[in-house]
Amino acid sequence: MNFPAHLDLWSLFGSSFLAATLLPGGSEVVFALLAAENVHSPSLLIGIATLGNTLGGMVTLGMGRLLARRYPMRALEKPAHQRASRWLHKYGPLSLLWSWVPVIGDPLCFVAGWLRLNLLLALAFIAVGKCARYAALWSVTG
């Protein structure tokens, strides 16, 4: 990327964080570019991307918790939110292993917050899912 090494890592963290919020964006390109440069260790890249993506997922979960105070559950009328709600009621925090999946991951985190799932379990399952995603991405790009 032609940036100092620490700025590369901050770019990865930022793109990973934003990709896990309700804002549009992705971190795969930044991750793949850094993996291809072969400057940083795989564990560092996977760790930074996982940390950013997990924190972004937790922000989305927190937004769900905050909005649940103001709006009743029936306000979740989007099909993605209804699907996420069914998954979370059926499988609980384990559903958050799928929080990395495009289109369904953000609603899963949002509705998990809305349903006030256990924060530590949510954090653990989100982190495991996100880490597995970046490890798989490394195996393809690294």
Automatic annotation (TrEMBL):
Q: Which UniProt keywords apply?
A: Membrane, Transmembrane, Transmembrane helix
Protein name according to UniProt:
DedA family protein
Q: Where are the transmembrane segments?
A: 45-67, 88-105
Organism encoding this protein = Nitrosococcus halophilus (strain Nc4)
* Keyword Transmembrane in record: yes
